[in-house]
Amino acid sequence: MDPTRLRAIIRSAQAGEASGFQDLLEAYGPRLYGYFYRATGSHHDSEDLLGEMGLRLVRTLKSYDDRGRFEPWLFRIAANIIRDRIRRSKAAPGRVSLSFESEQGQALADDLPGESPAVEDEMLAAESSIRLQEALDKLDDVTRQIILLRHFARMSFKELARMFECPMGTVLARVHRGHRMLRKLLTARE
Amino acid sequence: MNIDDRQFERIARWLDGEAVDLTGDELAAAERFSRIERSLGGGLDAAAPREALSRAGTRMLAELARPAHGIISLRRVARSAAVAAAAALLIFALLADNSGRPTPMPARAGDDGLLYAMAESFQPSIQNADLDVLAMQMDLLESDITVRRRASAEDIRIDELQQDIEDFFAIEPISTIDD
What we know:
The structure holds two protein chains of two kinds.
Chain A: H1 3-14, H2 18-40, H3 43-60, H4 70-89, H5 98-111, H6 117-137, H7 141-153, H8 157-164, H9 168-188
Chain B: H1 5-15, H2 24-44, H3 50-65, H4 74-96, H5 113-121, H6 129-146, H7 153-171
Helix pairs in contact in B: 1-2, 4-6
């Protein structure tokens, strides 16, 4: 998003205007949802967490100082929500998103008129997504968070180093090892 | 290529856009890393259902519409506390003296008439009924401490005996062992 437009939207939201918050949700909602989904593996949890994110945004946006980057600030809140959820639920690590499989798989099967290429591509994409999620679930929490924040929040190594209180080189090393683990897990099933 | 910590640090800075001079091997590692990130990124994206976004928006706007955004207003708390305190005092005053006249003191045997006089002479003010009730109670407590009962015959006899003992020792000095 154009920085000038973003600043205007943030000012509008900070002034309490509903249109400002709606614009923020439209701009960042999909990425936040994707981040929550890849962090939890659950569409149900992702929607719940997105709702929680909206509430926190309303309550804390006034404290945001526009000198810094908005996205790292936004996703730091999202990461805290994830961390709080993990602590609360203490769910088993490596949880598989059965709901995604059943929702998408079943829905696609119902729509199958025949084996058209588009539908087949969708099914392959869905299967790949599930396998990727399974592999992500096998990473340790910190490595998974760093990889997801690099992608969804577009955070720099410097910002991640500050957030996780470690050197930039350590952040890169963790991402690098995470990539190797994912490749190993994804290719092992082929 | 094995990358050590120092090289990871340099490559991370280069990937962040800092002006770092990388060796040939380091540059190759950095570019390979970027390629992997790009290819992985495409797979990480997950489509957000429109309904989920809509419901999140509804919750957000509902929170926005709440007074003070759900944050307790200190001014409101202080106002509520003051109103509650005034109401409590008023109720207390009404319960303690709902007739507008001082509560008659129960008769007790041997009470000094002064106590009765104090209670009966108490004139509550209309404007400060609650304070008047408190003042009356404080007066009664004081009077319990300071008002003496009229001496009974037995009290008089004890006082006379005490005086006799004192007089006896004043006239007849106590003999010492040496005597």
